[in-house]
Automatic annotation (TrEMBL):
Its EC number is 2.7.11.1. It comes from Malurus cyaneus samueli. It is an enzyme of class 2 (transferase). Keywords: ATP-binding, Kinase, Nucleotide-binding, Serine/threonine-protein kinase, Transferase, tRNA processing. This is non-specific serine/threonine protein kinase.
């Protein structure tokens, strides 16, 4: 039903926000959300809530379904009916609800960096709303996407197409080069924070999760960004050294300022190794 509504022009939204914000403020959030509330109830995509162990926090708007509980935020999915000119969107609510200055900053930073990416033509979700009452942002839902992390797992499980992973590494390198050339530091680069839009063969990447991002032109910051990704690669995908090498090679070729960044990456690696030797 949700899919049918989406096809019929209904609004499907992704939202991300604070883990467990007190929802006593919902009334205010509702009015802050203006049209969105008026657009009719948000419809559940596929039924029951996903999280089993702890009861999930109430959604920032009625009818949203919790689809992902991350370290920083809860991500919901919902579909607004009523034929509004409102494309698919994903709400994300930040923070704990206990005052939340840090969460608010992260949310604002996420929105800012997403906008900066989009202005530069770098693929990232559209930002629809920023709601300071519930520390929530409403983002374009990259429909039927999967994370690069899941894609790598499934390719590795099927035991073939390592050539495809090599190409994906190259695409990732190009994308990160474009992002860094805009002086956007992601701050939390992992394979779970990169989505692949269908059809998968097109390797159509979308960057997400900019809550720890910041703006910097310093090669050191860019080098550390790549180092964080390298660490994530090593721990999440042990057999992907050649893929990561392909990523760095295409990054170096695509970025106008890659020389000092790669140099810094080498330095940061060395520091990391020394630290782990010292213990
Ligand atoms: N716009 C979007 N479209 C489709 N899926 C999304 C979107 N935003 C987030 N997701 C899904 O929700 C997951 C969590 O989102 P996100 O990374 O933004 O939140 P987070 O709380 O910071 O998560 P984590 O701490 O796990 O990194 C993503 O890995 C992805 O699977
Ligand atoms: Mg994430």
């Amino acid at each position: 039903m949700a899919a049918a509504q989406a096809e019929a022009g209904g609004a499907h939204s992704v939202m991300a926000g604070a883990a467990g914000t007190a929802m006593g403020d919902l009334g205010a959030a509702g009015s802050a959300m203006g049209d969105f509330g008026a657009a009719g109830p948000l419809m559940d995509g596929a039924g029951a809530a996903v999280v089993a162990e702890e009861p999930p926090p109430p959604p920032p708007l009625p009818g949203l379904r919790l689809v992902q509980q991350g370290a920083e935020a809860h991500v919901y999915r919902g579909l607004s009916s009523g034929g509004r000119p409102w494309p698919s969107s994903r709400p994300k609510r930040y923070g704990t609800g206990a005052g939340g200055a840090a969460e608010r900053r992260r949310m604002a930073q996420e929105a800012r960096s997403l906008l900066r990416c989009r202005r530069a033509g770098i693929p990232a979700p559209v930002v629809y709303f920023v709601d300071y009452v519930t520390n929530s942002i409403y983002l374009e839902d990259i429909v039927d996407s999967i994370t690069v992390q899941d894609h790598i797992y499934s390719v590795q499980k099927s035991g073939n197409d390592t050539d495809g992973l090599h190409k994906l590494g190259e695409k990732m390198g190009e994308l990160l080069a474009r992002m860094h050339d805009e002086d956007i530091i992601h701050g939390d680069l992992t394979t779970a924070n990169l989505l692949l839009r269908p059809p998968m063969e097109k390797l159509d990447l979308v960057l997400i999760d900019f809550g720890l991002s910041f703006i910097s032109g310093l090669p050191e910051d860019k080098g550390v960004d790549l180092y964080v990704l390298e660490k994530a690669f090593i721990s999440t995908h042990p057999d992907t050294e050649t893929m990561f090498k392909a990523l760095l090679k295409s990054y170096a070729a695509a970025s106008k300022k890659s020389g000092p960044v790669i140099k810094k990456l080498d330095e940061v690696r060395l520091r990391g190794r020394k630290r782990s030797m010292i213990g």
